Amino acid sequence: DHRDLPTKAQPVPSGCTADVRIQPVGPSAGATGTLVDRGARELAAGTVGFDEEGNIVSYTVAAGDVPNVIGERLCIANAGFLPSLNHTRTIHPDQVLRLNPDPSLPWVPYYNPADAPAGFLQIPYQSAIEAMGVAADAGDVDAMRAIWANDLSVMFTSLAHGEVIAQALETGDLHVLRQLFS
């Protein structure tokens, strides 16, 4: 959706050599470039998560953290897009921001799907997406199943993506569900 895309180029944070950008939509959603942790600071005191190869893959938000300062810490030029990359409008303490979602999984858009019909119910869709993220972070697959069955499944326009979600809900695969919704 065009509302997620940057409208002008943001400069690389001062002191950073890498040009890292958040791409919050499409099949390649995630961070482009190599993330660098320049250390905790005021308004970005959270915990950085690494994969087995030592690459930054997540950031756990601390109280008082704000996206733009997290961006300065991790050398992300357009860190204002961290919330929509993580299926929410705002960030909150203890939220795990996933910076490099698994590219083999479909991307669930935070804003209405690109192929949504006229009159698509944007606010109920976003509310359901956010509720799925909260439940995923809490490990509450039963709540996710209820949200999917009662609200979200009828709003989902991609049958292929819906099948991936339904399968992950059926098997209780929290790894996949967290990649899709949180």
Number of helices: 6
Mean pLDDT reading: 88
- Structural class, from secondary structure content? alpha+beta
Number of strands: 5
Compressed to H and E, one letter per element, the order equals: EEEEHHEHHHH
In the sheet with the most strands, the strands line up as: 3-4-5
How many strands, which pairing sense, and closed or not: the largest β-sheet?
3 strands, antiparallel
Radius of gyration, whole Å: 16 Å
Fraction in helix: 25-40%
Unreliable stretches (pLDDT < 50, length at least 5) are: 1-7
Strand content is 5-15%
The CA-CA distance between the termini, in Å, is 18 Å
Choose one word for the global shape: globular
In words, what does this structure look like?
By secondary structure, this protein is α+β, with helices and mostly antiparallel strands. It is built from six helices and five strands. The radius of gyration is 16 Å and the shape is globular. The chain starts with 20 loop residues before the first strand and ends with a helix. The model is unreliable at 1-7 (pLDDT under 50).
Key phrases:
5 strands; disordered N terminus; 6 helices; alpha+beta; 182 residues; globular; two-stranded antiparallel sheet; single chain; three-stranded antiparallel β-sheet
Short description:
This protein has 182 residues and is of the alpha+beta class.
What's the arrangement of secondary structure elements?
Elements: E1 21-23, E2 30-32, E3 47-50, E4 56-60, H1 67-74, H2 82-85, E5 96-98, H3 122-138, H4 141-152, H5 159-171, H6 174-181
Antiparallel strand pairs: 1-2, 3-4, 4-5
